Amino acid sequence: MLKMSSINKVYQTELVQTHALRDFSLSVKEGEFVAVTGPSGSGKTTFLNIAGLLENISSGDFQLDGQSIVGLSDSELSRLRNEKIGFIFQGFNLIPDLNLFENVDVPLRYRGFSRKERKQKIEQALEMVGLAARMKHLPSQLSGGQQQRVAIARALAGEPKFLLADEPTGNLDSLMAKQVMELLENINKQGTTIVMVTHDPELARRTQRNIQIVDGQLCDFTMYQGGTVESVNEQEAIA
Amino acid sequence: MFSYYLQLAIKSLKSTPTTTLLMVLAIACGIGISMTALTLNHMTGNNPIPEKSSQLFSVQLQASGKTSEWRTIDNMPVQLTYQDAVNLMRGMPEYKHTAMYKTGFSVRSLDPKFTPFLRSTRLTTRHFFSMFNIRFLHGAPWSETVDKNPTLQVVINNDLNEKLFGGGDNTGKEMLLNDKVFQIVGIIEAWQPKPKFYDVNNGAFQAAEQVFIPFILSGVHEFESWGNNNGWKEEHSNTYQDKLASETLWIQYWAELLTEQAKDEFQQYLAGYVAEQKKLARFERDDARGILRDVQQWLDYNNVVGNDSYVLVAVSFMFLTVCLVNSIGLLLAKFLRSAPSVGVRRALGASKGQVFAQHLVEVGVLGLIGGLLGLVFAYLGLTLLKNNFDGFDFVATMDMTMFFAAPVIAVSATVLAGIYPAWRVCTTLPSIYLKTQ
Amino acid sequence: MLNISPIFNAMMRNKSSIILIVLQIALTLAIVSNAAFIIKGRIDDMQRGSGLAETQLIGFHMYFYDDAVNIADQLLLDQQKVLELPGVIDATAINQIPLSGSGDSWTFRNQLDSDGAQNINAGVFLGNYNIANVFGHKIIEGRNFRPDELVIRERDGNTPKVTIITQALSDKLFPEGNALGKFIYSADVPVQVIGIIDKMQGSWLHSPMVEQTALMPVLNVRKFMRFIIHVEAEQVDSVIANVQQFLLAQENRRVISSAETLLEKKKRSYQSDKLMTNMLIVIIAVLIFITALGIAGMTVFNVNRRQKQIGTRRALGASRLDILRYFMTESAVIALIGITIGVVLALVLNNYLMTYFSTSSLAFNYIVTTLVGIIVVVEFAVFWPARKASMISPAIATRSV
Q: Has residue B114 got a pLDDT over 50?
């Protein structure tokens, strides 16, 4: 699904040169749920931005769903982003002027679906996160957990193969965080690949695979034994 | 996608009502004022006979004294002497060309109870009507014979026809000009060229004459000129006949020259005449010459539009620029404030081009609203001018060109102004807005 | 002391919006100073005294269409008869009406021999011997016309012998003074200056010769004549209403126009100037308003954007006054840059107007006045948003969202 080979990312300002990712290689298979951890400033965000096609790489190769993205134009990248990637952010990033329906509508609009298709997909997506009844509400009328569920609906409405989550529970209390996490796990079970950046080790532990970024390099690699979602849940239940 | 952008634009403009109002007002004021100035300029700068503009020529002769000074850029007098006009009319019979001047009469029907009123009157030849494409409702111009043998015949326009007779075909009837009985041979449409290009020197925006009589009557009946008489030579001219023989300049002269060759021939004809008059020592200047100017050149030469009008247009367009700069600033601030939403859209798959288009549509909507409101402002402004100033009735009515030009100018100016803010917002990196602060 | 350099650095980081404000201020300065200069010139022109009792002098024209009427006799009779109307002080037939925009001018020489002579144009008003009284002129030097000096001029070449001229014409013809008693020449006809009046504008208000005026006791008999009546203030309306019918009742073989005061004529003559000043005043007013609102709006945005930064500054010990001062100084710096460019622009614009539209050279005090005005407007526009900024609580710095 995701294959990064020897990626380097260098930020150049007038004064300093920062090497955000250094000879970074990572491969994520279809259907995996990967947690990315690492200290502040380690390059997590850069990794996320590159994985999400929001920033270009300085060197190396990056293949998404078997297609190399090196040298693609902005509109080609946008198209890929629209079709293959769903984003979930810590701050939800719902567009405040748009109601839930319209928020979920945004990626579908750029995809060019017909009005009927869009309506059906939006309702389906909101149904899935249990907020179909509130589709005319503005984001500000919702709790944090509800907002994040809308964001998830928005990310999923276009049926992407790959979900990128950036601290999806960072702004939520533990109960809501649990709900959101369960939602993500369900989604993953249905076949969507998820890469989640977090600094919460509890959360990371629930995933099949953990990777850590330190100083722009992939530093640790752990595969939980028997790492199925069910077993993690069991472990937690036991604990 | 356009309808989606349109929805988003309206939502966005609604979400910041104060800023939107400020920008709309700025654009509307800029458009309103510049359109008012432009309309004034456009209407005064109107070419009243575009279909023949380049085939009709005003004739000028440098017939003045050695040291005479005229207000024109080439120091030429704009009118002719009577004798030159009469001399010129004798030649070149293959082309239509005519002398003319303005006089006036008390006008009456033959009914003794009819209260006379004053009407300015043009003395000219029958060519006048066909040269200037004037339509006859009834009858025709007087005949060639009448141009040569003084006959009391008259052509009137339909306004006067209605005032005298209540309208209808009254050719063949008689009417009184002062105490002379004239026979009506033709009734023309209510012809009102604005500006009055054939005699700009006597008020470019005065009404056209309603009465036309043969030029040849001037020498017989001594109808005084009601226009400007410009003298440069010290000569005693007490009687009318003195004046006809004098160097006083008071006659307008026009020629219809349909081809380039005709123009050349007429130009040579003038040159020949000037040479002849120089030999007779009547034309004393070294630069004595004849000049032809077509209608547009003539209007420009006489600065019919006036400097004020151009200054106003210049100032009002600078004003529009300020209004647009003002709007660019506000748009930039507004767009950059909405950058986080743009970041989200980019993440969700909007390309730079789509974000750019979305913002340009918003700017276009703004420009359209501002432009339409500006049109209303311009209309109010022109109405205000019309009500407060005499003689603006015809000037201060927006014609169709201006009516369509205003929104087009408004939208294109605002879109042009919006390119920078839209470009700024679509090129900012989306990633920086996606992180939680 | 005010700390300019951090302000300047902050500005450099926000170039485009600063450039826009600077541009706006510069253009505003250029437009306003030039427009104000044009307006002032026009208003000065319009406020020049005409030397005439504009509201009490009424004028109209008449046209004798019947050759059977003895026009000269009728005009002299009219002049007598019109005195019967209540409120009429004096009247005369005349060849042109002052301030009206149409009339006659002659060229005078100050000596018979045309070589080396001054050739001066003047508006010449031909009326009865009482013409100076009709206009209400005081003869400041010399004397008024005598009845026996009236010349009836039909198509016979009778010429005037005497004239009363304005001081302005006198100064032009005889720069060394002492016009009184001298002869001036129209072609080779000598006319003696017997009196001088202080001031009288002629017919063409936009002509440089507008104050060069001569009066002559000549009844210049034509079919088309004009008439001037001096009326007591409270009777002006009634005379205007009645005079046309009254004179037609004396002799109806003529067409008489309706009468109006010279003030009306003057207004019409200045119409284009009035139009110009009105348009420019509207432009200036709206321009300043829009610029002020624009700058205020931008400051509001800036304050909102920098809320956290302002809170941090406050938390680090900046007082409210410091914050207020920061924004006021920032806008002053921007205004100064804008003004510097604006002065150049104003001169360029003026130069353009001078070259193409022969306006006069812009007096520098217009730039200075506009400049000061703009600083005041800018600071005024910035004050409220800046005050709002100074109210931002330091606590905002520690809040995370």
A: yes
